[in-house]
Amino acid sequence: MSVTKSAHKTAHEAQCACHAAEAPDPLAPEPFRVVEVKQEIEGCNTLIVEPETDEAKKLCMYAPGQFHMIYAFGQGEVPISISGDPAHSNRLVFTIMGVGPVSDALTRLKEGDKVGLRGPFGNHWPVEKAAGRDVLLVAGGLGLAPLRPAIYSILAKRDLFSRVMLLYGTRKAESILFQDQLAEWNKHMEMNVSVTVDTADEHWGGHVGLVTELIKETNFSPSRTIAMICGPEVMMRFSAGALLERGMKANQVYVSMERNMKCAVGLCGRCQYGPYFMCKDGPIFSFDQVEHLYKVREV
Amino acid sequence: MKDAMPAVCIDRADFDSVIKALAGDGYNVVGPVLREGAIIYDEISGVSDLPEGWGDEQEAGTYRTVKRNDKALFGHNSGQQAWKKFLYPSRERLWSAQGDNAEFKIEPNAETPPKYAFVGVHACDLRAIEIQDIVFMNPETADPRYGKRREGAFIVAVNCAQSAKTCFCAAMGTGPRAESGFDLSLTEIIEANAHYFVATVGSARGETLMQKIKSRPATDADLQAAATRTENAQKQQVRSLDREGVKELLFSSYSDAHWDKIAERCLSCANCTMVCPTCFCSKTEDTTDLSGNHADRWRLWDSCFTVDFSYIHGGSIRKQVASRYRQWMTHKLASWIDQFGTSGCVGCGRCITWCPVGIDITEEAKVFREEKMDPRLRGDDEVVKGTKQ
Amino acid sequence: MSEKPKLAVWKFSSCDGCQLSLLDCEDELLAITGVITVANFVEASREVLPGPYDVSLVEGSVTTPHEKELIQEIRKESAILISIGACATAGGIQALKNFADVKDYVSAVYAHPEYIKTLATATAISEHVKVDYELRGCPINKEQLLEVVIALLQKRRPNIPLYSVCIECKRRGTSCVMVKGTPCMGPVTQAGCNALCPAHNRGCYGCFGPMEMPNGRSLGNWMIDKKMAEPKDLVRMFRTFNADAPAFKEAGNSYEK
User: Is there a contact between A113 and B101 (Cβ–Cβ < 8 Å)?
Assistant: First the structure.
């Protein structure tokens, strides 16, 4: 934790040692240009953005699971997880569903438009820790987007991992993200991809039901698996529960959380979750860190 | 300061020169003033602006200024306002942007921050400033706006010679005597034939200032008189908060039914958070002019008591008032310790006095403690867990 | 914008005070007419352009049979409908008749009650049609009006707080009148006026209506406990400009017994 380092600093030290006048402003966005817009599903676009300045370039180095604050001119800022490949250090990729005025504005952006970015913020998926083990990725709905950088990283060093499995659940077939990629990943047997939908029409030939059912049906060895879950909180709660039932330990299971956030640097206080700041201590938690909070209403 | 300047005495008649000297050094001098039946902090140009002869009576949900039977300049306790209104303004432009979607430029807020001298900072508030320093001046994420204002601020502490009924700084270990973190500290002494200040220098800046002020060395009797004043202040404190294990206590009380009892009274009006000298939560607002080509981003004081505070798409996390009060109190007394290495409460009592319905954090803390002490009320299924892992 | 959006201002049962807030915008009004076509605003011009309208601002409550029909027409013609002021959002002061027998009022007030056509109640616009946005206040705050119009034009979220007056009051540094002994509705009232009355050393009157999840009973009980008010005073405090707003109605009724 970075904050605790300064925790015992006296006011006097703070007063004298501070060179705030020259310090960068953690609240000022850097300029990026939208170079590509791709509609993924209804209301949800993937934006590829490129840095406009040298300072902005520094924002392109990140770890899977981290996020940026994206500013749409005049509209405001929202935290968006990176959905691109961390190996590409000259651009950033975000998959954004319009669910409010700012994210709506982001989905209205066109190629050539400009955005402001701050970040990357937060911690990352335990990709290193998963080396040598089975990896179980569990995604719900848009939760596949923040997991995709982890998938890229794992597949880039596929030999380091044993079995890699993706269990993905969405409301309906039309809500499935990255369909082509899912097929591609599955085809080359680099990763076992299982997809389920809550409700299906006659065109859907696949699994119908909740992602927790896939967890029950999937063949993996609980003791040597790392699970990474991303999706709505209720989905993560049930998924983690299903994994624990299969015999996994809470410290092998990771979840990515979401809370209201304005600053992403621990100043606005909004993203607190029990003792944690989502922006600095999260968004990714091992389940043993948060299991007790998951049992409490409205934390 | 290693070679601390020995304490000196400044006569009441010469005290005006302290304010004038600070103003002469280019400081925007702010201190207590009496306005609309309350003592607040505002600009002062001389000793005549101070609330001479005024004190206050406070209880949960009640505040009244009262005439003292002496001419004390600092005979008051914590008022509604805290110094954060200067260091962390309630509404501040973070930056502006000019242009449109296709091309815009971020322009930093170029306003020069005022250089403040705070006269009359109580020990609890001094600690509160230190606590906000930890929040806003963490090297990795320091807010330069706060930093600039804080860096320039000159602090004249005043050791309390009395306490309000809502004060509990002694229990929180923050006062009533200021031990460090000031440029100059004062204890006001009023005796039958004398009215003076025992002054202690706390920094090189303070020492430079004192060279301009008429003073005499403090005698043992003066120091004893000063010590007696703060001891009296401590003895007057009727409220307390048991810090021992309070973090574990609250972390194990998330599902306690008492939160609902508090919520029956709580107005979720957010007054406690607004007056708290350490509460730092904020919201941002993005505004645009009619042309749409100029945008501003603002930061405003916000509160964990609003519905919007925890809003994510689909609805607010903390829908119930009970959850919001729990968030506030648990943050203040428990998770703050994990986050910043210190309690977020300094015992100033503002949240008690300025709660419109007199909810008292010290009383509520006691209820949780008594429940845990009483085996009949204790839920054994709940694990004491919550600390960061 | 190729064609300027059309704005219409409509008056129902009200005192015109909220519409006047728009005229009160003076400097900004000229700029607004540069980007908006004012299609109907009788306080400013007699010219009425036909619908449909991009934005309709509706002032006043529904108090007569004619108004009940008219609001349906306006809704059909309006892409966005914003009700403005206490009358439009909660029935206004005239909703006090909802607490009494309207016939008694009519015969007490008018020399020839037989000419009066009125409904038994004065009700908010939202009780009759879907409302896209509500601006509270008696009268509304002109800055809030401008904010909503600008935000709608630019498709951004309007910065309209739903929390208590106290937050605004503390931000501007006013010392709390309630804690100093003056009954104040601020802790249960929605912000938006920049805590005007407390800044002039008076208690809040509740012009902006109930805040999000207000706790009127707790505030009222405290005032009774501290002898700041009696139950009958509380009935009056909750029954002013927003008497029919559900939370104030409930609190007011609870002190009537």
Answer: yes
Strand (E) or helix (H) holding C66: helix C65-77
Does C170 reach chain B within 8 Å, measured CB to CB? yes
- 3-class secondary-structure state, position A137: strand
**Percent of chain A predicted with pLDDT > 70:** 92
pLDDT of residue A10: 40
Q: Taking CA atoms, what residue in A is nearest to B313?
A: A99
The pLDDT of residue B121 is 98
Same domain, A39 and A178: no
CA gap B371, A182 in Å, rounded: 54
By C-alpha distance, the chain A residue nearest B385 is A292
Per-residue pLDDT at B1: 44
Instruction: Say yes or no: B387 contacts chain A, CB-CB below 8 A.
Output: yes
pTM of the model: 0.94
Name the residue among B244, B192, B177 with its Cα closest to residue B7: B177
C193, C198, C199, C205 alpha-carbon torsion, rounded to 10°: 40
Examine the domain organization and report whether B272 and B210 are in the same domain: no
Q: How far is CA C180 from CA A282, C174, C196, in A?
A: 44, 12, 17
Structure tokens at A125: 């998926």
- Residues in chain C whose beta carbon is closer than 8 A to a beta carbon of chain A? 154-157
User: Of the residues B202, B235, B268, which one is the last residue of a structural domain?
Assistant: B235
* Chain C: residue whose CA lies nearest to B285: C159
B154 is in which domain, residue-wise?
8-235
Q: Which of C154, C180, C219 sits opposite B267 (nearest CB)?
A: C219
DSSP string, A224-285: GEEEEEES-HHHHHHHHHHHHHTT--GGGEEEE-----SSSSSSS-TTEETTEEHHHH-SEE
CB C189 within 8 A of CB C163: no
Amino acid occupying residue A240: A
Determine whether C164 is exposed, middle or buried from the number of CB atoms within 10 Å of its CB (0-12, 13-18, 19+): buried
Residues C33 and C146 in one domain: yes
The CA-atom distances, in angstroms, between B101 and each of A105, A289, C127 are: 10, 41, 39
Q: Count how many domains chain C has.
A: 2
Residues C148 and C184 in one domain: no
Q: Does A74 touch chain C (CB under 8 A)?
A: yes
With contact defined as beta carbons under 8 Å apart, do B121 and B84 qualify? Answer: no
Complex prediction ipTM: 0.94
Residues 6+ apart with CB under 8 A from A176: A41, A168, A170, A182, A195, A197
End-to-end alpha-carbon separation of chain C, Å? 57
Largest CA distance in chain A: 70
Kindly state whether residues A169 and A266 are assigned to the same domain. yes
Q: Are residues C78 and C188 in the same domain?
A: no
The reply to whether residue A11 touches residue B304, judged by beta carbons under 8 angstroms, is no
- For residues A279 and A202, membership in a common domain is answered with yes
Judged by DSSP in three states, A33 sits in: strand
**SS3 of residue B273 by DSSP:** helix
Q: Give yes or no: residues C228 and C141 share one domain.
A: no
The helix (H) or strand (E) run that includes residue C217 is: helix C216-225
- How many domains does the structure of chain B reveal? 2
Give the position of tokens 């299906």: A200
Do residues B111 and B50 share a domain? yes
Whether the Cβ atoms of residue B209 and residue B182 lie closer than 8 Å to each other: no
If we measure between CA atoms, which residue out of B294, B103, B107, B97 comes closest to residue A32? B103
CA C77 to chain centre: 22
Please tell me which chains touch C, using 3 or more CB pairs under 8 Å as the contact test: A, B
A165, part of any domain: yes
pLDDT in tens, A193-251: 999 999 999 999 999 999 999 999 999 999 999 999 999 999 999 999 999 999 999 99
Same domain, A90 and A185: no
**What domain range is C237 assigned to?**
165-254
